[in-house]
Amino acid sequence: MIIGLTIAGLLLGAAVVLGLVRVATAKDGASRAVVGDLVFFSTVGLLVMLGMVTDSAAAVDAALLAALLGILATVALARIITRGRR
What we know:
Blueprint: H1 2-25, H2 29-54, H3 57-81
Helix pairs in contact: 1-2, 2-3
């Protein structure tokens, strides 16, 4: 199980790094928003994996709270980008 978690952690870490590079090179706000969500939720995934490895309920609770707030931020950013149109 540790090998699987290590591989998943490396893939999520690579997603975070590549996402940060893409945020820096994106030309429009919509691309930055989408990649920013990718980076955020990859980081939440890393936090969940940390909680699994260390058997920490607090890390998993923090990841759940962060995911809830991240979804709200995504919706708010989508409203800003579309200027409130539905």
